[in-house]
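Sample intake — Lipid-A-disaccharide synthase
Collected from: Chromohalobacter beijerinckii
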Amino acid sequence: MRIYLVAGELSGDILGAGLMQALKRRHPDAEFRGIGGPRMLAEGLHSLYPLETLSVMGLVEVLKHLPELIKVRRHLRRDALAWQPDAMIGIDAPDFNLGLERQLRVTGIPTAHYVSPSVWAWRQGRVKSIAQSVDAMLTFLPFEAAFYARHEVPVAFVGHPLADELPLVNDRQVARSALGLSPTAPLLALLPGSRSNEIRFLGPTFLDSVAWLRERIPNLQVIVPAASPARREELEALLADHPARDIVVLCDGESRQAMTAADAVLLASGTAALEAMLCHRPMVVAYKMASATHWLAKRMVKTDWISLPNLIAQETLVPELVQDAASHEAIGAALLEWLDDDAKRQAMEARFAALHATLQRGASERAAEAIDALITHGRLPPREESA
C-alpha cells in the first residue's frame, strides 16, 4: 500500500504519525511519501519538504509566500502522479491541501482530508468545493460529521485524539498534590490564552473577576498556567500591582494538570475549552477582541455557540461571554454558580465525562479503517457517524 500524506504543522505531524502507525498495523509493508515532521519521519515518511514549508499564518504572510506555495503544490502533484499512491490524505492545512486533493482526485487517486476546516461556522459555501476535492472527510466531532452528511459529502466521524489521550477517570486530589495546592480550598484554574493579544484583551478582566470572587469566597485559590515564557512575563506584569496577586499561583505549562485540579475553569474560547471538558471541569468561556474584528466576526460566523463543549452537545452547557458581555462582574457571577453549588458542579462533571466517552473512539485506528475501506471498496464503511 502506498499512501501520500501532506501535513502542514506540528499538530498535523502528530496526527499523521498516529495514522501511519495504525495503517502499518494493517499493512506492515505500507510506504508513505509527501510532507511531514519529525514524528512522521520516524514512522517512515519520505518527506519532500520540511514541515515548516506550509506553516504560514495571516493574510500578509500567505500572500508573500504564495508563489512558493504554488510551486510546492505543483511539485507535489507531479510527484504523486509519478508515484501513483493508493490514496492521498491531506492533514489539516485546508487552504493548501484541498487544492492538491482536488487536482489528484480528478486523475483517479482517492483522496481524504483529516481534520475538518470550520466550514460549519463560516464560509459554508466552501462545502461545494470540499465535495469536489475529497472522497472522504474524516472529522473529530459528531456535529461536523452531521454537517457533511447533510451536504452529501462522504464522512467518517473518527473521534478526537485528545479524548483518546486524556483518561475517562481523573483524580482532582492527585493533581492538586502535584501542583502543591490546598486539597480542600475552592480552586479556580484561569487560562487567558496562548497569544499575546489574548493576554492583553482578557488578562486584566480575568484578574478583576478573581478579585470580585475573592470578596465572596475568601479562601479561594487560583492557578494560572502560562502557555510560554513570554506569556508568563506578560502575566507577571499584570499581577505586579493587582489586588489578587497574593492568591494567584503561576505555573509553566501544566494546563491539563491545573484544570484537573480545579473546581471550575475560566478560559478563552479555543482548544482549551475542549481540554477542560475532557478534564470534566465546569467552565466559563469568555472572549474579547478588537472592535473591528468582533464586528466582522459577528457577520461571518454562522453558529449559535463559540465553545466546543456547547457545539458538541448542541446546547448551552457552559456560559459564553463575549466582548461587552465579558465584564468582570458577569464572569465572576457565572463562576460563582459553579463554585457555590456542589450538586450543579458534579452534574456537569458527569455530563462532560459522558461526552468524553462519545469522543474517545481510537481516532487513529478509525481513520485508518476509513482509509482502508476507501482504497479497498471505494467507499467508507457503514456507521452511525453521529453516534
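Post-analysis note: The two ends are 30 Å apart (CA to CA).
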